């Protein structure tokens, strides 16, 4: 993918999407806001995931910095690893007041479902951040290092249940597949369960009262699990990317002996066919967000890497779609529709 090394899959290809939000922000749950709002930002998965955190962090900053006029509402429309939200964008063609946070997870789901052209037909706005992936286990896990986990994984691949907050072709799926290949395993032996974002993955990894975890190993972005990482509820075995996470005693995958260097990304798109003045307004708004000190600090706090606007987003998305498709073929993984 864009900027991806052959030894990895999608290194700086994953781009940052921030959210376009306005001064007074209505943080709705999972229902769409009324049609009377001046500007809306859709999160195409459940609350608590990376898209959700990106949108709500951006909304808060835009309001606090006085960068917006009127009201910008954030709402969640989850389902099918973001494809329900993608369908909504197509139905809203020409609506310049609607934006959607998206990233490699949604792009991967679209490619896997044969709907990449639908995504590429949206109006690209901006790329704002990249993010490493983390490989983590619950506090109760018997594994204290990535090496311990991989040794068990090699002996009995089916005994290690992997889970991630994206569908086939998304970052939380591609990272463990790359890790398996680096560990000398066939990716098709990986027992992987997709979840609809980090908010959906969390209870599967942590379990609950009278309920054992549904997965043994979780793969996600660090920002979605920072409170659990800091409290010790989850233990990070390794982090993708070039550097360790600040304050987290876990090696990079390279330091742990695995030739994988991987990064996720997020961005913002609008429906197809919106007026050019609406495109310009969104880009100015998100550009002001991306260059603000508050956003820079928020990215640092969340383990994100800020992207300064300037990328040709349309070309980037097309390249990413090709890379995801090629990577899945290279790994010997057939594309398939994500679960609903």
Automatic annotation (TrEMBL):
InterPro entries: BUG, Bug_dom1, TAT_signal. The keyword Cytoplasm does not apply. Pfam families: TctC (PF03401). Belongs to the UPF0065 (bug) family. It comes from Galactobacter caseinivorans. CDD domains: PBP2_Bug_TTT. Keywords: Signal. The keyword Transport does not apply. It comes from the Bacteria. This is Tripartite tricarboxylate transporter substrate binding protein. Residues 1-28 form the signal peptide.
């Amino acid at each position: 993918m864009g900027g991806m090394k052959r030894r990895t899959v999608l290194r700086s290809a994953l781009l940052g999407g921030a959210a376009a939000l306005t001064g007074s922000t209505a943080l709705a749950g999972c229902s769409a806001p009324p049609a009377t709002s001046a500007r809306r930002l859709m999160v195409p998965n459940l609350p608590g995931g990376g898209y959700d955190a990106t949108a709500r962090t951006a909304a808060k900053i835009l309001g606090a910095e006085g960068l917006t006029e009127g009201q910008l509402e954030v709402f969640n429309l989850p389902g099918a690893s973001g494809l329900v939200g993608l369908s909504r964008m197509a139905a809203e063609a020409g609506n310049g007041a609607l934006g959607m946070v998206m990233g490699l997870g949604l792009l991967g789901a679209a490619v896997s479902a044969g709907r990449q052209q639908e995504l590429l037909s949206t109006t690209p706005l901006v790329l704002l951040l990249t993010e490493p992936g983390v490989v983590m286990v619950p506090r109760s896990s018997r594994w204290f290092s990535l090496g311990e986990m991989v040794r068990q994984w090699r002996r009995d691949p089916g005994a290690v249940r992997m889970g991630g907050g994206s569908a086939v072709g998304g970052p939380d799926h591609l990272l463990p597949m790359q890790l398996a290949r680096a560990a000398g395993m066939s990716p098709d032996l990986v027992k992987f369960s997709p979840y609809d974002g980090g908010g959906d993955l969390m209870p599967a990894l942590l379990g609950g009262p009278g309920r054992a975890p549904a997965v043994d190993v979780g793969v996600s972005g660090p920002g979605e699990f920072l409170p659990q990482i800091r409290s010790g509820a989850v233990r990070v075995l390794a982090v993708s990317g070039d550097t360790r996470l600040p304050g987290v005693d876990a090696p990079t995958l390279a330091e742990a002996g695995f030739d994988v260097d991987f990064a996720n990304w997020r961005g913002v798109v609008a429906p197809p066919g919106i007026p050019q003045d609406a495109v310009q307004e969104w880009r100015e708004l998100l550009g002001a967000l991306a260059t603000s000190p508050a956003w820079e600090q928020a990215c640092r706090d969340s383990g994100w890497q800020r992207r300064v606007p300037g990328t040709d987003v349309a070309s980037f998305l097309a390249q990413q779609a090709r890379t995801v498709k090629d990577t899945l073929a290279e790994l010997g993984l057939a594309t398939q529709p994500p679960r609903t």
